[in-house]
Sequence to fold (270 residues):
Amino acid sequence: MTKKYMIRSDIEGVTGVVSYEQAAPGGSEFAFGKRMFMSDLMALIEGLNQGGVDEIVIYDEHFDGRNIDIDMLPQNVTAICGKPPYKADWAGGLDETFSGLILLGFHSKQNTGELLHHSYEPDIKDLVLNGISVGEIGIETAIAGDWGVPLQLITADSAGVKEAKDLVPNVASVSVKQSLCANGGVCLSAQLTAKMIQEAATEIVKNPPASEPWKIANPELKVVFNSGSYRDKFGELFNCDGEILICEDTVTGCWAEYWKMKLKAQEAMK
Fold:
């Protein structure tokens, strides 16, 4: 059986990053954040390959999806860059042929008060999936569940790891830093976290954790917005007041529908 893994990658939850100046393209310290991101990513890829993986696909989720140094990737790795929108039948390259999902560099959801907490966009106050408040970790895990793919490993700050384990108790994890507040944490050395990530990745290939796909039946996704021009534009375009409710056959379909609405609202704001 082919061993094939999907990596969803972000930057706020990678080694050493505690500020948006380090996480945001154009920020004064983004070169440092990207270097730490590539350190974590390459350790993950090396560990997966040491475990005997056949194929790796990365979907770059951070900002505009242009953060991966392609020239550093081995031949069995494909990267989806530029953040092409999800569609009901296209989940960012993920499908039922994958052995597992890995979330690299993720963080806690909006309004937790934890390190660099947010949910995709600063305009989103909350994401509620069938009554459960979730962030990026929950949405991506549920999308993978649509395709029968389990979340098998997460690397994040301590708050992000806890959030993942609350949803998928048996997921393997690497906490690369301890969250202390929204803009501070206890950071481990890049050499140590690379070793931790590499070892965890090798282990999940050789001995997959007993994590089951997080499947959501009859999904209803409520998107709650913070006050501002984005919320106002959604109200004008979609006749809503501060939140929208999206019901589709799958979580992938719900998120794809939000993508369409988001792009329409952003275009209208130009």
Observations:
- The mean pLDDT is 97.
- The first strand starts at residue 4 and ends at 9.
- Residues 123 and 226 are 5 Å apart (CA to CA).
- The radius of gyration is 18 Å.
